[in-house]
Amino acid sequence: MNKQTVLIILVTIACFTACNPDQNNVQQQKDIQLITVAPGHFHAALVQKSMYPEVDSVVHVYAPQGPELDAYLALINQYNTHPENPTHWHEVVYQGDDFLEKMLEEKKGNVVVLAGNNQHKINYITQSIDAGLNVLADKPMIINHDAFPKLEQAFAKASEKDVLLYDIMTERYEINTMLQKALSQIPEFFGELVVGSADNPAITKESVHHFFKEVSGKPLVRPTWFYDTKQQGEGLVDVTTHLVDLVQWESFPEQTIDYKNDIEIINARRWSTKLTPAQFEQSTGKGEIPPFLNESLDDDGNLAVFANGEINYTLKGIYAKVSVIWNFEAPKGTGDTHYSIMRGQHANLIIKQGEEEQYKPVLYVEATGERDRDAFEGALIKAIEQLAGTYKGLAFESAGDGRYRISVDPSLVTNHEEHFAEVTEKYLTFLQSGKMPDWEVPNMIAKYYLTTKALEEAK
Fold first, then answer.
1. Per CATH, is 172-419 categorized as 3.30.360.10?
2. What superfamily would CATH give domain 3-168?
3. Which one of 41, 204, 299, 377 is least enclosed by Cβ atoms within 10 Å?
4. Are 255 and 246 in contact (CB under 8 A)?
């Protein structure tokens, strides 16, 4: 940091102190300063792909030296130099093995951003909260059930310290998911969510991801530890976190979920994806598989990664299923995909992202047969009219076979990378008000109970 930057910050602090008797409150509302700790996952950089009026442009970074930090800084530089809407972050970096201790000693900000090695994340969360810092954490916060009591304690401590702990649930901001939720809340059209059964759940969510892909237009380089499920976490506790969150968020919006009484696991299973040594090198840039992955190698030298999983359970008596699959690379012209269905008394709400949809998510609605076609169309028209004021360009058209395709104005369609700004903006509103909705914390706890308990049972 140069002298000029130090002077600017000192002058700003002096002004806040002199002009505002309640300095801490002003800082919370108008002077939010980010601290990025050990950014081992590209999601840490995506939080900074946009600027925020409430957030200081100086970001203090604490991390060990290495390619993960270099990759994070390269992405920040890419955003700062982008020809359209460039950001203007100033990264002040501390590199060293004692990065966490140094961060806690200096406390150069008030919001810790965590996205990296999931094995250590609960430790970073706990110590940050103990130091009186807010935490915005990438999922998953924990990757095994042994850590669940620590997470419960972290939320309790956050309440005691009057700070906010929140995880980054980007999929709530995907427009088709938002519309699926909105339509399910119109009983005159959807009816009630059916109870379903273990064989035919009321709500199903399936996600397909890929180890090798592009981020911000460039091939993503995975750290070698990403393939160690003891550090990254298995599929049941990683991407599945998003799916479980959406089931709760859509099926019982703004309702508190008590994991001790509202969740029952029927069964859970896990299986592996195999990577050849060549695929491992393509993904990580490393020519040799490190020794800590030896126990995951088969006789042919292929790496078995338990990245896939499925959970069948009930939530407040409603049957649900979530599953995640990881392949190495998507076919050319495709990418990660999502499938979801919510089954109602009068309508089914289905999100598909296959070849027919050109691998972009599309929401369909279909009648269940409870009404004739004219009555169903009439109810759909009224539902669209009811939501039109909220969602620009909302419309529907026949997709054949009794299905209707829902569409909105293209301006409402944002991608995965853009969702990080939307989550961050929501979190900033929580910081400004000093609290989150009452249901958020118990529902985060319920989510991580389910994912980690399901993994324990699957094993």
1. yes
2. NAD(P)-binding Rossmann-like Domain (3.40.50.720)
3. 299
4. no
